[in-house]
Design goal:
- Among the domains are: 131 residues, no CATH class; 226 residues, no CATH class.
- It is 47% helix and 8% strand.
- It has 33 helices and 17 strands.
- Strands 3-4-5-14-13-17 form a 6-stranded mixed sheet. Strands 8-11-12 form a 3-stranded parallel sheet.
Length: 810
């Protein structure tokens, strides 16, 4: 008799609570099989309106362009859909803003065929861009304001820089969340009523009130159009239903029409309408932004739960139907990718960049009790059902009272290997928000309000409904360390990029090295802040976005010009761990053990360690962050502190206080190409460390030691959040106790007051196989930095950095 062995269940089969429906699986495969393509419908509309409104106030022009986009964009309803609307009209359709259209103009003929990050683009679209759209916008976007002489002379201030040109896109401030809950409760027409009431209180003889009128008028123009988006889709759904022969599908289409008749113009009455309304608001935020980067719904398990709870209690909804609806909603976030030039540094060929539609689950209520509910679990389940989708960027807000069941559920999702969820320490983040009171421009943040904090973009900390969004000021701390040891000279470009802070050969103490670092950092930060001021001059008032942000209507100001209750600016750092490790090596080798002189070390660095293998060996063996080693950890903590102290001195043009963030995207590779060899043993032009993550290959004592090192830093100094990547051996989860072991590690993460950790669970052999046969791994999703991507779409340089991460055990 032949014995038949039972097949061992996959992790997915072991952990699912509800099986995904056939509809969800059909849609998932359809979206994965769809090719990214260029969409210019919105750009075409905006260009026409901009031409028609020459001479009108920019507040009105922006509002009219948004209104026309909502009223004229193509309306598509596809088979199987339970929700309607797309960010830019179609699945996997990527919109071009005016600045992006100009930036990629020279690459239009290779855009469809380039190896990394291709986008289909028709000959007709290329012709229209070249002959009609781009000529109009070129005179606006490349006519930059005058640069101060010190910026003109600076390497990063060159007018020819693609990075500089991307600033001048008329874009709003990204990385915020606002309006979703407000519209659920009041409807768009309710918000419009607020604006009308505010106009009625203006005294137009008062110069300050007079200045507010035009912006408030723009809000009303925008909201009138926004209230019509539902009726457009309702009409389309009924039109499609008339042609539908399948009775079940006809009923679905009529239900869509009924929902769209109600939302978002009016308050949502049930869970179905709540999800559709939230998605409509997201679409319109993207239309007003002119892109969809860095925006998300915040904490929808909190503000959508009352609708779910009521429907379940009254028998209008089953949990299974709700899960299918959530699954379909989640997949819509993965249908848009940002189009970059192939030479655009950290973007372009280096990454098919997801926009960062962040949402969090779990966390705390305003009274300090745990906020977990059924939707918290169901949102995690939705990520389990939609393998291969790269968004939404799901985070679990963990705190000391997080239920074990929820934490284990999240760990089960992690074990499936897609890089989700992020684990975010809400206990620490409450402290971060309270710490902003020291430098805040708005009313004090109460403890109750701080507990409402959430992530935006990758996972940057924001107060929902109340913040402006923010520009990033870049600060490459690895380069600052290099300039400290070259008296301001950059070895890669062979140019002076910093002030003269002393010949390092003459430094007689470690404190002199640190003082030179501080001077270089202060100078570089000031230079980058000036570049940022220029970018802020081009910000355009966005009426719809601003209408959703608290106080903009009352102040009569856009969020781009100080209308938000809290205006925040961000300094984005790279290379903090590289700088700390390098300082630790200098301290250990030169001043403590005295096995090297600074002269010898600098000679080795000048030669990129060529001919100095013995010195590089010593540098590599010097203490490294991530091993619970006080020598290295103290230097990282010191760098963090001095940067934060300097950053807090600055305000933005829109009145914002300035805080530090560290979410590096994929730019740790590109920015590494600007930095020469470092005392940590890192070679010239190789990737920098990934934000708060230990340098690749150096964290040799396991995950707990990594968290202990990270916990020695005053993480409140990195006020807006920091990215910590880890990789775990999949064999940990061959038995169910592996989920509990990871949950225990996350408890350590909370106790050590670390801000964030995200974990890839995938073998190096699997990743290498995907490099060799990408067609077999089309849905292999990995965490890159603060975002996810399908591994096979990444540039090999990025793939290699992910493979190089140590595969830890627990």
């Amino acid at each position: 008799m032949v014995q038949v062995l039972e097949r061992e269940k996959t992790i997915k089969e072991r952990v699912l609570t509800i099986e995904p429906t056939a509809r969800v699986e059909r849609l998932r495969k359809k979206y994965l099989d769809t090719t990214d393509h260029v969409i210019i419908d919105i750009l075409r509309i905006r260009t026409r309106v901009w031409q028609e409104t020459e001479g009108e106030p920019r507040e009105i022009r922006q509002a009219k362009a948004f209104a026309a986009s909502v009223r004229e964009m193509p309306i598509n309803i596809y088979p199987d859909e339970l929700l309607v609307g797309w960010l830019f009209c179609e699945p996997r359709g990527s919109h071009l803003s005016a600045g992006q259209a100009l930036a990629i103009e020279s690459e239009l003929d290779i855009l469809s065929t380039r190896k990394i990050n291709p986008f289909l683009v028709s000959d007709e679209v290329k012709q229209e861009l070249r002959e009609s759209i781009n000529p109009y916008w070129r005179k606006y976007l490349y006519t930059l304001p005058p640069f101060p002489p010190e910026v003109e002379k600076g390497f990063f201030g060159r007018r020819s820089s693609p990075a500089m040109r991307r600033y001048f896109d008329g874009a709003t401030l990204p990385h915020w969340t606002a309006g979703y809950e407000k519209v659920l409760k009041k409807g768009i027409l309710g918000v419009k009523g607020d604006a009308e009431e505010r106009i009625s209180r203006l005294d137009l003889t008062n110069p300050e009130d007079f200045k507010k009128f035009t912006f408030l008028q723009g809000i009303i123009i925008a909201l009138e159009a926004a209230a019509e988006i539902g009726t457009r889709f309702a009409s389309k759904a009924r039109e499609v239903a008339e042609q539908e022969s399948d009775v079940v599908r006809k009923i679905e289409l009529l239900k869509i029409a009924e929902s769209c008749d109600q939302v978002p113009a009016h308050p949502a009455r049930n869970f179905y309408e709540a999800i559709q309304s939230v998605w409509f608001i997201h679409i319109m935020h993207a239309l007003d932004n002119e892109h969809a980067s860095g925006m998300g719904p915040g904490r929808p398990d909190q503000f959508m739960y009352p609708y779910y709870e009521k429907d379940i209690a009254e028998g209008r909804l089953t949990k299974e139907d709700a899960q299918e609806l959530i699954d379909c909603w989640f997949m819509r976030y993965s249908q848009y990718y940002v189009i970059w030039r192939s030479d655009a540094g950290s973007y372009g060929t280096h990454t098919p960049h997801t926009p960062g539609h962040h949402l969090d689950v779990g966390g705390l209520k305003s009274d300090g009790t745990d906020a977990t509910n059924d939707l918290s679990y169901m949102f995690i389940e939705a990520m389990m059902h939609t393998t291969g989708m790269t968004e939404p960027t799901l985070g679990l807000l963990v705190h000391s009272k997080t239920p074990e069941d929820l934490l284990v559920k999240a760990c089960q999702l992690t074990a499936m290997g897609g890089g989700y969820p992020m684990f975010i320490n809400q206990d620490l983040r409450v402290g971060n928000l309270l710490a902003r009171n020291e430098i805040l421009n708005g009313p004090p943040i109460s403890l109750e309000l701080a507990r409402k904090g959430t992530g935006a973009g990758c996972h940057e900390l924001v107060l929902p409904d109340m913040e402006s969004g923010f520009n990033f000021t870049p600060l490459n701390l690895a380069m600052v360390l290099e300039l400290t040891l070259t008296n301001g000279w950059n070895r890669v470009f062979n140019v002076r990029l910093g002030p003269e802070t002393g010949d390092p050969k003459q430094f007689r103490s470690f404190n002199e090295v640190k003082e030179a670092f501080k001077k270089q950092m202060t100078w570089r930060l000031r230079k980058e802040m000036i570049n940022t001021r220029i970018a802020e001059m081009t910000l355009q008032p966005k009426a719809f976005n601003s209408a959703m942000v608290e106080d903009c209507i009352e102040k009569g100001l856009s969020k781009e010009h100080g209308g938000a209750r809290y205006n925040i600016h961000s300094v984005q750092t790279w290379g903090r761990i590289d700088a700390g490790n390098s300082l630790a090596a200098i301290k250990k080798l030169v001043f403590d053990d005295k096995v090297l002189s600074l002269d010898q070390l600098c000679q080795a660095l000048d030669s990129n360690f060529k001919g100095y293998d013995d010195i590089r060996k010593m540098c590599l063996e010097a203490p490294k962050f991530g091993n619970d080693n006080d020598c290295a950890d103290e230097q990282v903590a010191w760098v963090t502190h001095v940067v934060n102290k300097e950053v807090k001195k600055y305000k933005s043009s829109y009145g914002g206080c300035t805080v530090v963030a560290e979410g590096p995207s994929a730019s740790y590779v590109a920015l590494g190409k600007m930095v020469g060899a470092l005392p940590s043993g890192r070679l010239s032009m190789t990737p920098l460390g990934e934000a708060a993550s230990p340098t690749v290959g150096t964290a040799l004592k396991g995950p707990t030691s990594i968290l202990k090192s990270a916990g020695k830093v005053n993480n409140a100094d990195v006020n807006q959040g920091q990215t910590l990547n880890m990789r775990l051996d999949p064999s940990i989860f061959e038995k169910d106790d592996g989920f509990k072991r990871l949950a225990d590690l996350i408890r350590v993460f909370v106790d050590e007051k670390v801000d964030h950790v995200q974990i890839n669970v995938v073998h190096s052999d699997t990743l290498r196989a995907a490099q060799q046969e990408p067609e077999k791994f089309s849905d292999l999703t990995v965490k890159v930095a603060g975002y996810n991507a399908r591994f096979v779409t990444l540039h090999k340089e990025i793939q290699d950095t992910i493979i190089a991460r140590i595969e830890h055990s627990l």
